[in-house]
Amino acid sequence: MPIEIFRSRHQLEGWLKALAVTCVISFLSILIVSHAIARPSIPGMVSIGVLWDLSGPLSNQGIASLTAARRAVDDVNRQGIATGGKTIRLLVTDTAGNPGKLLVGASRFTGLQQADVLIGPTTPSLVRTLSGFASAHKIPLILTAGSRPVIPFRGRNISWIFSVSPGIIPEIKALYHSLTLMRLSKIGILTVANSSGDQAALWLQGYAPEYHLRIVGREGFGQEDTDAMLQLARLQEKGAQIIIAWGGRTAGRVLLRSLRGIDVPIVVPQAMLSEELLANFPAPRNRLWAIASPVLLGPSLPSAHPCSLAVERFLESMQSGGPPLSIGRLLAAGKAWDAIHLTAMAISNTPYITTSGIKDALETMENDYIGVMGIFHPSERNHGGLLPSSLLVVRLTPAGWQRIDGNVHIDLTKDSRPNTARSPMAP
């Protein structure tokens, strides 16, 4: 039979070698898959793998995240939140803003260092890479960057992905609710001219009718443009009572060079804020509005806000005798703090510490998690779970951030100077 199929002994030997290699690869794959499913952990220990930029352009934010995470772990372990007497330990890797380094570091957490949960990244462009890794290896991931909705039932393979990074949907709902109370109904939209900006514009336009708001125009600009003065002027000419500018920190520089002659408020997501924007925003400064997490107000956060105690504890932990945090570091640290405490809350409701058990616990939490970035209640259909009502719309004043109360008339013609405490970052 071999003589009929194979015309030479050489061909037969080649076929047998190929078969042997295939069998070995299949056997190793079975071992790897079995090892990944079993995921043995250290008795009495829950391991959290954190992947942040500890070097590179955003290292200041990554280091702030790691500092906050370590202090949060100390807080959790000291209080004994983890179930069954288990304690939490951190496994740390430096992603340096590089997808290759991220994948190498993440792979370590599925090998000798077994992680029960992943947290990260720092750089928004790495969200897709890390999400894909976590989904492929079936490890719960809590994102600390990015703003896209984390909604599994919309056909996206993100059933293992959660987030404490403010998402665009709760930010829009919080803003639109406030605009409705302030009787501002004519909206202009200015976004970065790319796929991310197009998606933001769709969400902004899509939710407007629900709040009886009218979009009078939408304009785009490139992140490398000198300015967007013409686009803003067109929106103002169309009767916009407020202009929503959406993008990242790079887009904020373009916006900063574009505000001459604009007489209506400009509202931005907090991801667009930077020290440069705050320090150089032209007067009257109360025309710069932002959709803010509670931590952004710091000591100025009203004591009646549900997150006030959490923010106070966080600031005490992070700022013991140290200088004020910059906006980027403050928000990065806040997300890391919340990611650790949210994980601990899930662990406290998990009889057996497994990756699937933690995932299920995050999806079925009975109580809200009240954090510094807001109030979260993840569910099977919404892995972000940030409650829009816990966000605030604020304006920048010479004394720091001030909450805009929608029930009070806002005089947009004056640069008000209320006697409020300074925010925890240095404008």
Structural overview:
This protein is globular. The protein is built from 13 helices and 14 strands. α3 runs parallel beside α12 (327-347), α6 (168-181) crosses α7 and α12 (327-347) packs across α13 (355-363). It is an alpha/beta fold. Residues 1-12, 19-40 and 407-427 have low confidence and may be disordered. The strands form three sheets. The protein has a seven-stranded mixed sheet, with helices on both faces. Strands 2-1-3-4-5 form a five-stranded parallel sheet, sandwiched between helices. A two-stranded antiparallel sheet has the order 11-12. β3 (117-120), α5 (127-137) and β4 form a beta-alpha-beta unit. It has helices spanning 2-5, 9-38, 59-79, 99-108, 127-137, 168-181, 195-207, 229-237, 249-256, 275-280, 308-318, 327-347, 355-363; strands at residues 45-52, 87-94, 117-120, 141-143, 161-163, 186-192, 214-221, 242-246, 266-269, 288-292, 369-370, 375-376, 392-397, 400-403. The protein folds into two domains: 45-165 and 311-386, Rossmann fold (3-Layer(aba) Sandwich), CATH 3.40.50.2300; 169-292 and 391-403, 3-Layer(aba) Sandwich (Rossmann fold). It starts with a helix and ends in a 24-residue tail after the last strand.
